Amino acid sequence: MNAASNAAPDAPGNGRAPTIRDVARVAGVSASAVSKVLRDAYGVSDDMRAKVTFAAQMLGYRPKTAARALRGRSYSIGVLTPGLGPFPTQIAEEINRHFAGSSYRTIIAIYGGDEHDETEGLESMLDRNVDGVILITPHIAVERLERFAASLPMVLVSRNGRGAHFDSVTDDGFAGAEAMVGHLAGLGHRRIAYISQSDQGLEPPYVLSSASREEGYAHAMADRGLAPWVVRASYSEDGGYGAACALLDADEPPTAIFAGADVAAFGVMRAAYERHVAVPAELSVAGYDNVFASGLHGVDLTTVDQASVGMGDIAARLLAERLDGRTEPKYEVVAPKLVVRGTSVPPRVE
Amino acid sequence: MNAASNAAPDAPGNGRAPTIRDVARVAGVSASAVSKVLRDAYGVSDDMRAKVTFAAQMLGYRPKTAARALRGRSYSIGVLTPGLGPFPTQIAEEINRHFAGSSYRTIIAIYGGDEHDETEGLESMLDRNVDGVILITPHIAVERLERFAASLPMVLVSRNGRGAHFDSVTDDGFAGAEAMVGHLAGLGHRRIAYISQSDQGLEPPYVLSSASREEGYAHAMADRGLAPWVVRASYSEDGGYGAACALLDADEPPTAIFAGADVAAFGVMRAAYERHVAVPAELSVAGYDNVFASGLHGVDLTTVDQASVGMGDIAARLLAERLDGRTEPKYEVVAPKLVVRGTSVPPRVE
DNA sequence: GTGAAAGCGCTAACAC
DNA sequence: GTGTTAGCGCTTTCAC
């Protein structure tokens, strides 16, 4: 038989799950002693530890999180994400991996898109007594975040601006977009359009990293004496498709389209294909995020990589530090890097 | 100002969060009365309901899940997934959407790959008192699943075999693979290789849907008098790449490669590209799952669609029924459908 | 170093 | 219909 060896026996024995009192009875000690051993609290003899550990093992005892949470910690950390797209998914997996070996468990909840929904998500994590929370691309106003963070360890991912009570980790969207414009302009493009997400209504400097990309684009264009050309769309395949259609129908269409997210760039490519505009010969396309699909042969999208630098690892480390008692805020900015692939080439001479 | 309107006021007032007793005091009633109103329990007057609702609203009261869980339900349902790949992600999002309007909250935990790790994940959900659990492609032995399911509403996704205490929803992997072989053979292919995942060690009929794909392939090949040609690899881009390399190095390489997962098919395409084997002219490629990237222009992979039929919705509905008291097991099998795209064409005449 | 007692916030009997 | 009481399983003073 190939049954996996596992410490706790399968059978709960009688009916209900064993409690700390059952362990205490078997070990011949008090319940509070068991509690102390289980939490590595100070002041237990080696003998006591051995007896309790043995009894717990024998009974297949597992502490109830709900009961612990009522007095102490829940040993759960919450990850809030607006969805399970490629970027948040990578972050979440890194966080999960980081805490996997610890006594904390990671629970992921999907909430977002707007402040109201995300606030509900955050409160629902609080209801569940999480010991800390990591928010991916949060749209919540900074004052409200500060209020929550005052009593709950919190780390933000992909949002700019230094917090008083929370930590942040974000990529330098401004620099990433600048680098892409530099690349495209260096190839000789002058009509470089940018597809941006609709305004999030967040007050500077606490904008999402994706918003600072637009600033980087505008700045880089102005630097080179080029006219910025921004069109707004949601960051989805359809959003990119619609924006590209509008762009390509212009009298003088752009020679390069830079989408603020890879997934929107995919829509751009579909629009170009349908209109018989050859990519990259007639139109260069670039994205941002370097999602898995972008690297696929056949897609081969020029983009900016922010995820692979391990923002999830950093976020997890920051939260772990807070769980250990740190209270001064930290703000970490990681450098994105340009990934030049096949969809960007010099424009055709006109 | 554009602050979102939200029911509960922001400020907790004084220090700690309001409890049911605070609400009771403000409303001028007893704590148990408040509890009843909050849970829509039987036997409360309209007047009482109004007073309590008002007081709760005013105080921004939110029930503590930990405390509720200690006595009754936790209003949390757990989703266990081996990772956040395209398929489980879609399932999880559907489940999340399904419960979003209810009083239940969905929490996702990543565990898996082997029985030991997944069992730990399942127990950790139990520790957290979830009211029900949905397991995506679980590798846990059926006896153990039954034992857990005896006291916890449980739904399995993508695993074959009817349970006594749990529900299942799975696609008909056998039929899906058969259909693909039919398509490929219909085009004229005779040397059709199949890339399968390593054996999971699960006892029939309780195998993962992906395992029944291999049976479907073998059956369909035999039906047509063709020799099955199976190579094992992990379902990843690298796994598919390695398997394809071995296949393409054969004296008489296959004219079509059918990978049991799209992501492996991507690796096949990379291997073909590196060896200057033209797809589809010299090699047809097919996958299974119809993930987002497969539909991208530039990838255009022929595949089998199982996810879009809403297995997540079905799983959520099944769990909701159990939460409402159903105990007879249900087993739902959804029909996969062939998606013919650009990577499959007739073989070159030899 | 160890145990007894109180209580976290809520729900579930049971009286009234 | 409403309030009182007890207690879920654990942690935490505080005696000893």
UniProtKB/TrEMBL annotation, chains A, B:
Alphabetical list of Gene3D superfamilies matching this protein: 3.40.50.2300, lambda repressor-like DNA-binding domains
Pfam families linked: LacI, Peripla_BP_3
Key word Lipoprotein present: no
Annotated PROSITE patterns: HTH_LACI_1 (PS00356), HTH_LACI_2 (PS50932)
Keyword list, A-Z: DNA-binding, Transcription, Transcription regulation
Molecular-function annotations in GO: DNA-binding transcription factor activity; transcription cis-regulatory region binding
Domain of life (superkingdom): Bacteria
Annotated HTH lacI-type domain residues: 18-72
InterPro entries: HTH_LacI, LacI/GalR-like_sensor, Lambda_DNA-bd_dom_sf, Peripla_BP_I
Name of protein: LacI family DNA-binding transcriptional regulator
